[in-house]
Amino acid sequence: MKIRISLLVIFLSSVLMYSQNYPHYTISQVQFVPDSLLSQGIEASPRVGDTIQITGVVMVPSVVNPTFDRRPIMWAGARWQTYLRDTNYANTTWAGINVIQNDTTFASQGTLMDLLDTAQVVTITGVVSEFVTTGQTGGQTQLNVLTNPLMPIQFLGSKPNRGQPVEITIDQLNSGNLPTGNILSGEKYEGMYVIIRNVITSDRNTSTSASAPFAINDANGNKMFIHDQSGYFTKRTHKLREWDPPLDGTTIQYIRGVIGQFSSTSSLPTRYVIRPMFPDDLLIGQSPPAISNVRRNRDTIATNQSVTITATIVDNDPGGQVAEAKVRYRVNGGNLIDLPMSAGLNNVWSATIPGVNLDSALVDFYIWARDNDGMISLNPTDTLRNKYFYLVLNRPLRIQDVQYSPFGSGFSGYNNYRVRISGVVTADTSDLQGDGNQISRRVHMQNGVGPWSGITVAGLAADPLVRGQNITVSGLIRESNSNTVIDSITSIVVHSSNNPLPNFATLSTSDISTLPNGTVSAEQWESVLIKYLNVRVTNENADGQPGPNGGGNSNFGEILVADNSNANTRVELQEGNHPYHNLWAANLDSIPGNIRLRLNNTFTELRGILFFSFSNYKLVPRKVDDFVGYSNYADDDLKYLADDYKLSQNYPNPFNPITTIEYSIPFEGFVEIKVFDILGREVKNLVNMNQTAGNYKVIFDASSMPSGVYLYQIKVNDYQATKKMVLMK
Q1: What pLDDT, in 10s, does the model give residues 460-506?
Q2: Residue 558 located in a structural domain
Q3: Residue pLDDT, tens place only, 439-460
């Protein structure tokens, strides 16, 4: 307390100096958006960009203890975060807001935000902004604490407590199992301290990377997710205690917290989430039996081989016990067959599925259990998308078998089992070098062409592999960041090198588009070589504004492209080893040879490997030859219309190995630009698409060609021209 008082005295003069410089608004004046705008999908505060002052009641401290434990309670990375409530507890809408301090370095700690405590009444000066999570259409209004000039928080007193939460129901926020957000009825609760009663849990996720550890459901089928912003309700690195999310089917008497917006999971995105703050914000009722450690006794299964399924099944309620359990299975989508399970030692139950006398049969199953209170649980809980399954095979296992995931979960039937598979390396660590941060370098292999034929080879053991090697890998299949990988490798055998790679599968951008994780039509191409034809850049930055840091939002090196279907899909530029970029860092334009992609740039072909990360499928080009037929309006001629057909001499000439070809077309037409060797054989197709009138340039990369004289030719409408160029290596 002495520390707090002394700090308050030190900064009192600063408070008096600056406190009159900015207008003061109530929380509701900042948050309120009229229905006329909400009905149009406009939910940003009208005060975005304004520097203002707000007075409110602190809902949660920014750190556990400012003296002894400075870990944050509400996680926001290295930042400090809290929530304010209107001082009039009778206000039940538009009366809460998120407050965040982005700069927590020593020089900025004079804001005193680390001294905040529950129920304090404070006035905070900051800039209103709308925070948008990647992949979302909506945002969350927040106040960014002003640190330049430094504006200390004014402490005005305290309330007896944080007050009673506002009672609401899920349907006021989200509708149905795949919520899109009820903006008209839900936005007024953004940042508010609320309570939701008598719900059932689902979608339990015990991963140490899960930001949405479980969901709650009401009796009418409406769902919302819990966001683990609080360190008391997470298994991630910001955890403040050891905690497990409740079992699916658990009754929740109440859950309290603040309402926010977050892209909770890639497969079931939700608009509004609830963020409990303190351990007592969740009161659990009865729980159904807990089913875990579901395993089969064989990694691979041949015809006529029986398979024993085991599971640990426990009832944790006082006096509770498991009354019965069974395996429910079917063959090739036939009728469900119930197999009673027998209880063994240490709560392990088991049953044996008889052998199947059919090659390539698909056997899927789930576990059903009931306790003595009649509470029933399933594992997996979603028996449509997440069934356990295996293939009955009378032949060696292939990549296609391991990748196959027909129900929409994205999980392999061999997940957490050891396998041996073969294929050709289609990308090595010189191709996909990673972004140096969250996504690391990696290796891919592929067996033939077509769906399900590619897989990621993970771990350091894969680093020495080289594109074109024919290999056999033995390892453990697992799901890593929603990608199926072979990991924990015990052996890699290189049979041969310099093998031709599988042909690219030609897809439309509409085939991948923005489909959610696990969607079979997209999932089947995971880790496979694919290409899009005749695409144009439709968005320079898929996650914000063009330029470094996305204009203050985000720039993860991803663009949107579309072909003639006009369906946008993502392309990841950062991870490959090539000069193309979207200016995710300020210095990229200054590096010789780099090429910045801009709106309406086009490619005859855009190739690479399909990958999934951060809630999106995306094409990841490897090296420069995955960008075919790049064409751009000539930067210096953008303001001029072409008045005649023209094919310019390439520059530089001679060149090694990249040169630029400029051309002009005065009328719209189908443009072909091809490169021939001196014998007249076609060696490259640079442009093959319809283009509007204008001035263009296309990049020709001849890194894979020998030195010599080449011809390049343009055909468009009735115009044709040919010029000569020299490649000198």
Answers
A1: 899 999 999 999 999 999 998 889 999 999 999 999 999 999 999 99
A2: no
A3: 568 999 999 999 999 999 998 8
Beta bridge partners of 670: 690
Radius of gyration of the chain (CA): 30
pLDDT tens for 177-235 read 755 678 888 999 999 999 999 999 988 888 888 899 999 999 888 999 999 999 999 99
656: domain CATH number is 2.60.40.2550
Binning the chain into helix, strand and coil, the percentages to the nearest 5 are: 10, 40, 45
Final residue of a domain: which of 467, 496, 525? Answer: 496
In a domain, 488, yes or no: yes
Mean pLDDT of 369-393: 90
8 Å CB contact between 414 and 486: no
Largest CA distance in the chain: 90
pTM above 0.70, yes or no: no
Containing structural domain, residue 348: 290-392
Structure tokens at 566: 């006009």
φ, ψ for residue 548 (rounded to 5)? -55, 135
Compute the distance between CA of residue 390 and CA of residue 675 in angstroms, rounded to an integer.
50
DSSP 640-673: S---S-EEPPPBSSSBSSEEEEEEEESS-EEEEE
45-62 confidence digits (pLDDT tens): 889 889 999 999 999 999
Distances (CA, A) of 56 to 27, 63, 258, 278, 355: 8, 18, 15, 19, 67
Cα 27 from Cα 15, distance rounded (Å): 20
Q: What is the dihedral of CA 412, 413, 416, 418, to 10 degrees?
A: -110
Residue 16, Cβ neighbours under 10 Å: how many? 10
Q: Which one of 135, 158, 181 terminates a domain?
A: 158
Which amino acid would we find at residue 75? W
CB burial string 362-392: b at 16+ within 10 A, e below = bbbbbbbbbbebebebbbbbbbebbbbbbbb
Task: Output the domain CATH number for residue 250.
Answer: 2.40.50
Grouping H, G, I as helix, E, B as strand and the rest as coil, residue 11 is helix
pLDDT at 633: 60
Instruction: Quote the tokens at residue 718.
Output: 């009735």
Per-residue pLDDT reduced to its tens digit, 306-318:
999 999 999 988 8
Position of tokens 């951060």? 614
Residue 460 and residue 386 share a domain: no
Residue 7 and residue 76 in one domain: yes
| Closest listed residue to residue 156, CA positions, set 20, 2, 22, 8 | 8
User: Cβ distance 601 to 635 under 8 Å?
Assistant: no
Helix (H, G, I), strand (E, B) or coil at 348: strand
- Count Cβ atoms within 10 A of the Cβ of residue 195 and give its class: 0-12 exposed, 13-18 middle, 19 or more buried: middle
The type of residue at 182 is N
